[in-house]
Design goal:
Elements (H helix, E strand, L loop, with lengths): L1 H19 L4 H11 L10 H5 L12 E4 L2 E6 L6 E5 L8 E3 L4 E8 L6 E3 L7 E5 L6 E3 L10 E2 L6 E3 L7 E3 L8 E3 L7 E3 L8 E3 L18 E3 L7 E5 L6 E3 L7 E5 L6 E3 L7 E5 L6 E3 L7 E3 L8 E3 L7 E3 L8 E3 L8 E3 L8 E3 L8
């Protein structure tokens, strides 16, 4: 009986070893190269911080293998470092290597890859091409200065916030719905063909202008803290919120945006603001600008207006039947405040002496 057990154990070990050898050679070599490199913990390799003993990379913690191919890698917050290349991983579907110290990352010829999270690393060099199923890409909080997204037609969500990008082209991502490029150094952002884009967060960059025509699905737009001096928003039928503060902007025009609800444009140098055919506008913040006149009359859904710290002489808010709150603080030259028909007005802050409502 004892001899039988020994033989059975030997057979099982032999089977396990044979199974381990089924991992595709190119995948095994790529993992072995990365895992043998130094980690972010002094004196330890990447394999050691993962807790891998031996050279069998197919059983590395966080690596899922099916039919001899890697299908998933989950190495988030593991003190990993160096350059990770995952080229030619033909069954790989999901990768999470966020919260490490990677400096380089390559994804190429990975036809099954759907979701990637490599955020919160030190990545400078990034290669992504021929990943036709990729839908979600998170690379925020890295050190990426340049990226090309080739062969990624199904990308729906991209987060590149907190990098060093100066230009970005995403025209090859026609189903893109979410793009976050906040806190880069962008001077150019091309959104051609992004007709499915719903949310664009591009604040804290160096943009002097942006082309938005054709973005018929765009709902949320944040361009705050850029260098845009004049902005004309025209014919964005889905746009609901617009944030353009801190741009040194002098002119702002919004036309034919039927569902725009929230306009946030304080801390600019605005001398001209015009709003036409924006029937659902409800909240307007234009404080700390240089406006002398502003006409927001007959806005049937308008509820709150803040125009404090301007140079207003004339402010027309008449026939805004839902208007409840107005702030005109520090507009010492204001002598023409029109509130006719504003029967729901509850609070007027900074009411100039002599004006009645």
């Amino acid at each position: 009986m004892k001899k039988t057990l020994i033989l059975l154990t030997a057979a099982l070990l032999s089977t396990g070893a044979a199974y381990a050898q089924k991992l595709q050679k190119n995948e095994a070599n790529a993992l072995r190269t990365f895992l043998s490199a130094p980690s972010a913990k002094e004196g330890l390799t990447n394999a050691q911080v993962l807790g891998l003993n031996g050279n069998d990379v197919s059983i590395a913690p966080g690596v899922t293998v099916s039919n001899g191919r890697v299908t998933e890698i989950d190495w988030k917050n593991k003190d990993l470092a160096g350059t990770l290349s995952l080229s030619g991983f033909t069954a790989l579907e999901k990768v999470d290597v966020s919260g490490n110290r990677l400096i380089g990352f390559t994804l190429s010829s990975d036809p099954a890859l759907i979701e990637v999270n490599a955020s919160h690393n030190h990545i400078k060099d990034i290669v992504i091409n021929n990943t036709p199923q990729l839908q979600v890409l998170r690379l925020n909080r890295n050190r990426i200065g340049d990226i090309e997204l080739n062969g990624t037609p199904l990308l729906r969500r991209i987060n590149l916030a907190g990098n060093f990008l100066t230009a970005l082209e995403v025209s090859q991502t026609p189903v893109l719905a979410y793009l976050n490029v906040t806190s880069n150094r962008l001077e150019e952002l091309s959104l051609t063909n992004c007709t499915a884009l719903k949310s664009l967060y591009a604040g804290f960059n160096e943009l002097t202008g942006i082309e938005l025509s054709g973005l018929t699905s765009l709902q949320n737009l944040n361009l705050g803290s850029n260098r845009i001096s004049k902005l004309y928003i025209q014919g964005l039928p889905a746009l609901s919120s617009l944030y353009v503060s801190d741009n040194h902007m002098t002119e702002l025009a919004i036309n034919d945006c039927n569902v725009l609800n929230d306009l946030y444009a304080p801390y600019n140098d605005l001398t001209t603001v015009s709003v036409n055919n924006v029937p659902n506008l409800a909240f307007v913040q234009l404080e700390w600008n240089d406006l002398t006149t502003l006409n927001l009359s007959s806005q049937n859904f308008l509820q709150r207006v803040n125009v404090a710290n301007n140079q207003l002489i004339t402010l027309d808010l008449s026939f805004d039947s839902m208007l409840q709150y107005v702030n005109v603080t520090n507009n010492n030259m204001l002598n023409d405040l029109r509130l006719t028909g504003d029967n729901n007005l509850q609070q007027l802050v900074g009411d100039p002496i002599g004006l009645e409502w």
